[in-house]
Amino acid sequence: MKALIAAGGHATRLRPITWTRNKHLIPLANQPMLLFPIKKIIDAGITDILINVNPGEIPLMANALGDGREHGATFTYVEQRGGAKGLAHVVANAQEHLNGERFLFFLGDNIILGSIRRLVERFQNEQLDCMIALSRVKDPHRFGVPEFDANGRLVRTIEKPEHPPSSFAVTGIYLFDGRFFEAFKTMVPSARGEYEITDMITWYIQNGKTGHEEITGWWKDTGTPDALIEGNALIMDDLPREQFCVQCEIPDATHIQGLVSIGKHTRISSDCLIRGPVVIGEHCTIESSYIGPYTAIGNHVTIKNTEVEHSVVLDGATIDTTRRIVNSLIGLQSTLVDYRRSHPKTGHRLVVGDNSLVEL
User: Fold this and answer.
1) What's the whole-model pTM score?
2) What is the CATH code for 241-341?
3) H-assigned helices in the chain
4) Domain segments of the chain: what residues?
5) Which H or E run includes 62?
6) Neighbour tally for 253: CB within 10 Å
7) Which residues partner with 336 through β-bridges?
8) Per-residue pLDDT reduced to its tens digit, 277-332
9) Any idea which architecture 2-224 has in CATH?
10) CA distance 9 to 102
């Protein structure tokens, strides 16, 4: 089998972070988000992986992820043609690579606990035509939702219904047989102007053998800042203990508690407290600060006189303030300073991009 990962889109809900980078390269636990579904796919025994990207982004993605050899796989980058027209259209765009084959389709911003191997094996062993993974959610109206009849039989899936017929969401993990592309020719765009993957699933329910299985543990669609920060915490809980290691010299007086990873050439002052799980990158400076649980700090970051907890701090950021920073996503090269260090001291100086959130 081959796998196709959707890694395009504009991620408007994550702006301004995504003005300057593809959201699938935003780091979680200091690794590009896209690496986590890639690892799940490889663990399921699929090593021929297609990655769908926005026009012009193949060099960017290839530079960040490579050709797959490092992971024992082969990556092929597929540029999206014809604009953003829905998830079913993303698959149709890869027809020349997938036509006639059974394949896995995985949304690159979905992270899950545990393996997807059982889904792949059931799809193969039972010779299903389509297989979908479901997860119970508190807000199903935000997702594709399955509808069941009185006997519990799956009858259709609906995209973002106003009145959801069940409490399940269709997660971004799908398996299809080679009839997908013939079926796509019969599809028409929805009221949103998109070729909905839920319509394709409904076609399979009506014209083939479709299986479904509930995901145990957690599943997270990291499409918003809050969800991304929560996804970072979930991943840090799931990291193997051996990935937490300190690769620089730390003063004896520095307090390190719990699972902490610190990269090379990072300097931590003796009056710091770092309480894990925490991941800190290379060439950072941490002085007179507290770094609390579920914080991921990128490379070349400077943090002074600050408390940071349950946050993601991207490369090159500078945080030098007496305030406590929590549940925050701090972008590349961002600067946070104490307003009392500038004049006049009675106001706040801000440069705030589109869709930003600032609490003062």
Assistant:
1) 0.83
2) 2.160.10.10
3) 35-43, 58-65, 87-93, 95-98, 117-125, 180-184, 197-207, 225-238
4) 2-224, 241-341
5) helix 58-65
6) 9
7) 319
8) 999 999 999 999 999 999 999 999 999 999 999 999 988 989 988 888 898 888 88
9) Alpha-Beta Complex (3.90)
10) 25
